[in-house]
Amino acid sequence: MHGFFFHRWGVRVVSYLVLARKWRPQSFADLVGQEHVARTLANAIDQDRVAHAYLFAGPRGVGKTTSARILSMCLNCEKGPTAKPCGKCEVCVDIQSGRSLDVIEIDGASNRGIDEIRDLRESVRYMASSGKRKVYIIDEVHMLTTEAFNALLKTLEEPPAHVVFVFATTRATKVPATILSRTIRFEFRRITTEDIVKRLQTVLNGEGMKADRKALHLVARAADGGMRDALSLLEQVRSYGGDKLEAAQVEEALGLVDEELLFAVSNAARDADIPGVMDAIQALVDNGGDPGDFLLALEEHFRHLLVGRVSKDPGRLIESTNETIERYKEEAKAFDPDDLVRMLSLLGEGGRDLRNSPRPRLVLEMLLLRLVRMESTVSIGKLLHQLERAGASSPASAGASSPASAGASSDTNFSPEKPGAPAASPAPKAGRARGAKDAAGPVAKPVKKTKPKPGPEETVSDAPQAERLLATPAEPKREIATPVPQPEPAAPAPKGRAKAPAGQAKKDAIDGRWPDFLGHLSTDNPMIASLLHGSIAHERSGDIVEILFPRDQMFQKDQVFDPANVSILEKVFESFFARKVNFKGKIGEHVGDANHLRKEKLKQDPRIDRILDMLD
After folding, report:
1. Domain 504-615: what homologous superfamily?
2. In sequence order, what are the beta bridge partners of 160?
3. Is-above-0.70 flag for pTM?
């Protein structure tokens, strides 16, 4: 929109109206993303329940002052009071252009003293000149001094009938409680990316412009929930690229980080590709990018990967195009959720170092090198579970070669009574790809053993270091004539008492192996496994397993017992324990204490000490 006026020297000057002003909403129907505010105010006007003072709180650029102006038009329109002002009468036009004497806008940042408030108290006595009510709009009201707030209290408590106050602020917590209690407060929300994109498309159609959807998404995300900021950024991009906008033009005009550069870093982290991550940093520098902005974008990027990995519906949590969301879902499959959490933690810590460093590029390089060299996460419970499964599938654990192994339990691998059994190789460690690296860790070299001539043949173990540490060291050489002592066979239990110990053993199997089950569950469904962290399980009568949660995990309990999650949990449980059960959830009074005792018991387990020594 262009207007013309003449300078005092006779030169004609063209006045251009920017998009943020040209497309400013003029009615509650045009207000974007604040339907709860628009509906409440419209109903109050229609029902003649307009209050004397309102407080509009929320981020910048979401429509606080605009809503105050619309409210002024609703109250003073020649056809009103009405929730739908005509926008054409003299009063409405004056309010829209800012010329109305009955709508007074005050900047609280520059008119913050007690003298200005005293002048306001004097002016409220006078009736409206052309409209029906006088509306005082005080923007950034939290900037007023304490004395000014105190001077305003009496007027707010008993205002004249023809006056309405509207306070707007981005920091409602700084407004005194005595003021808050005298106003009706509305919380303005950040506008969603999708709503901003729809509004930008409307503006483009009205301006005769074209843009691809990805370009609009980039503008909307850069606006950070503010419609005014989005229109201002669109104005900037329009000046750069003309009336046909593409994503590359938006990135160049606004200085945004190239999305392909972010995926290059995450791919380098996945493949342990050090040259790849160094090339990405060099590309950033060549394009004039800022390391701090790049790190913030990288944090958001890895957050999207985590969402794509664990969420059932990433589209709700990632504000981008459908193509980009699908790409995040595919790329995230190569990462373990625990690894992504550790990466995000590392990037967050590095941000503080980057801000305080005089050499941000060097800090960024060191940070990303640590990211690339980060090893995959393996929990203690998962490692024990893998070793237990490997021991159960090993021929030596079946006990066919030695009479002493007959009737041994499934975790014979860890038994100190079997020094002669060879250690089995554990399953490969779950985690993200690391190129040529072996996911199971370093493999120990074989050790030759001298077998006694009369004794049985001993086999040489080539098990990995982790299992060698868990295995009990071999006993020293015995005399040839000394036989290995055999345990006395246990007396058979009476027939009448045979079922009770079996039932008890079944209960103990579930209660004691619950951590192992959670480790197994984390490989199939990491989200449900994380929700069950801190829980314990007890088997009740009738194949009912009761899951107890700590008192502060009510949310986790509700999520786990969502019907879809319960179905998944039952299937994984059946595959692990080879039996069907029904689950019930309960908040336990002493679950936290039980978990603490269980952790203390684990600390005393020699197997845990050996694993920790190996990891160190």
Report:
1. DnaA, N-terminal domain (3.30.300.180)
2. none
3. no
